[in-house]
Amino acid sequence: MGLCPSFPSRLKTKKGDEKEKWSESWKDTLTSIGFNNGPITSAGVDVESEDNIFKPIQQDNILPQIPISCHHPVPRKGIVNKYNKTLQTNKFYANAFLGNQDQPIWTHPYFIWWGRGNSGKDVFETWGMNIAHIEEQELVYGEGNPARAYINPRRQSLIITAPELDRLSGLTTDTHLPFSVNINLVHRSTGEEPKITFPVVQGMGFVTASFRSATPIIQCPGKGFKSISQPVPVGKSTKFRIKDDDGRDWVAYVNPVPGLEYDTSSFIATDEHNFIGPSNFKGTIQIAKNPLGPEGEAIYDKAAGSFAAEAILTGTIDDIKGKYTLSYTRVGQSPLLMFVLPHHIQSLDSDLKPNVTKLQLRTTTKGIATAIWGEKLTFLEPNLPTTMGFAPWTPTINLPRLRQFAQSVPLLTTIALQDMHAAIALETPPDSMYFAGKTLAKFATILFVLKDILNNPGYVEGLTKLKAEMARYIQNKQKHPLFYDDDWKGLVSNAGFTEGPGADFGNTYYNDHHFHYGYFVYTAAVIGTLDPGWLAEGDNKAWTNMLVKDFAESDYNGRDYPFSRSFDWWVGHSWAKGLFESADGKDQESSSEDGFAGLAVRMWGRVCGDGGMESRGTLMLALQSRTFNTYFYISPTNPLNPPNAPSNQSSIHPPLYTPNLLTGILFENKVDHATYFGTAPHLIHGIHMLPISPATFYLRRNVVWVREEWEKYFSNGRALGVEGGWKGVLVANSGVLDARGAWEFFLNGEGGKWEGSWIDGGASRCWYLVWVAGVGGLGVEGDEREVEPRGGAVL
């Protein structure tokens, strides 16, 4: 680690120092591709619109108590960043600049990876770009029935390369945007000038390779091509129909730049593996898999020659209705064809339904992708949780009745005060931003219960201590202070600089920032609610905004942090993995903590007066609720693949896996019913429950699925047999099914005995009591003994 003696971020940005507008970032792409393959069009996007919720949070400015590091342990391999723009650490393409740069990148439905000259059993050696699409019958399963895991094998389907690429070749990336990147294959003899550039965009309809004076080769590994058709003219392009070594159908389009004298009909198969075109090609080659026969081919013919270069996200909120739009920059004259995921089809604006095609391809872990026409795709979320606050929440909750009920139970007040005094005496864990954040968030929730639910003035004593604890972090005087990393542009703990990549769950390497910082942001929001004057004191507001900017920046042109580091607005949830090369891509093992980060953004925006931030957090929660129930929580009563998906692929995940009912760790390339810290069911499922929060009922909205999960793993006393804080997590979660049983457990314990160890370090007994009472509908005016619990006894 090295420290920068001075840093311009401490200064206010001058107008002349601002980066190019978002639309101008295409300059980098043109530089990379080196030619204009046709008109560049961008669907009209006004990111400055008053209605657009993606607005800057606050002016970039690193606070003076935050040291600045110039030498992160992870090198920026092959990154071309002419204008020193912010870089994405947690996005789908990070493998392109990490490790050996030869792990896959998943765009869905395809994944691609650089061959890097690698060889081995069943590996076709190449210095070009491998392309893969895997069918369900090719999956590899883990042990057991149901299978503990499934993985998509890394099996080369086709390859795009050139003979000019060899052991002196390298890979660079440029134009690192939230939904896209350019990947370049270069040769040392020509410096950084690419031989081939791949404009990589999530959901891209083709794998597109832009050649710059190179000789194009399409390769087929395995036993080689089954067949290659004669050239077929399609407008200004030439098409070849290809059958790979499994006999599966692909189409390839050769699109020379206008005016280039190039004989596209002169491609020849030199052997069963190589299909080679004339040298000195300038233009694009586009490849796509075609499972639909002539109908699919007609779709691809219509789209050939065009590709997406970037996407811009905008959004609006009107009462409980949210809308977000991805507007693509199209290069080429043909209409733009993109693929979307099942949750996109669920929420697609009805005006765009006619643009949906019958063309579908399986993705690795996100179900069936559907091809759709359009440069501007709009999606609707019609039931935003706009009334959600810090209290327990359901769409029909009666908070006045909950308060009345809670205040009528003297033991609850006693428990809350005991929880507060225990929190006052408890040392905030010094070694971890994650555990410190959980501890402070628990403390804040206890104070909220005392003040808002129980109307007890005793909270003031605890608030004084909580402010003092937060002040230590705001002043950056904790054991492992935060540093601003000027290499990768973010806020990191210094623990990993001395203790290695695994310190504090990889925080220094950008793992889990939405988890770690989300707890602090939530705590600040509660403090600002209990004492609004705190917001104006010192750096309290600026420091909290700084955390939000690190993991949920909303400014496309931000100087210090990348746009939306953690949350992927295309897949609809966050990725927890940061700067770690990964054979299976990004992953996330806690949907619930992802949702809690969304809640934290929403509530901090409300408390600090940033309406745009509040709206973004609210929309994040809506997407999370949709995608968690589509991709993470597995049930026939949860959303399935689009209606016209193959009959044997109605579920998102394969039948041999679905009885697990939960993904466990969801990767881009595999699903593993496990955690990083154990394989017991209470760990796998519990990490998708904690923290029990106001958002829990909204995120785990399918009560039928909650009951299915409970019956399979925790019924008949199994939950009560779990040791430690996980027991409390499980019982609290059961409050949706059996509020009275959970209430009695947290109020009286087992056999009249209570153990404090049953409560997780990020939770409290008083909060669990209030939560199960709220979501379970406990509390009838006058006599709580007349309660009719929801569901039946489950413990």
Q: How would you describe this structure to a colleague?
A:
By secondary structure, the chain is an alpha+beta fold. It has a domain of 301 residues: Beta-galactosidase, Chain A, domain 5 (Distorted Sandwich), CATH 2.70.98.30. The protein is 27% helix and 20% strand. It contains 18 helices and 33 strands. The strands form 7 sheets. Strands 9, 10, 11, 12, 14, 15, 16, 17 and 20 form a 9-stranded antiparallel beta sheet that branches. The chain has a 7-stranded antiparallel beta sheet with strand order 3-4-5-8-13-19-18, with no helix packed on it. A hairpin with a 5-residue loop joins strand 16 and strand 17. Helix 6 packs parallel to helix 9. It is globular.
Keywords for this entry:
single chain, 795 residues, alpha+beta, Beta-galactosidase, Chain A, domain 5, nine-stranded antiparallel sheet, seven-stranded antiparallel sheet, 33 strands, 20% strand, globular, glucan endo-1,3-beta-D-glucosidase, endo-1,3(4)-beta-glucanase activity, cell wall biogenesis/degradation, polysaccharide degradation
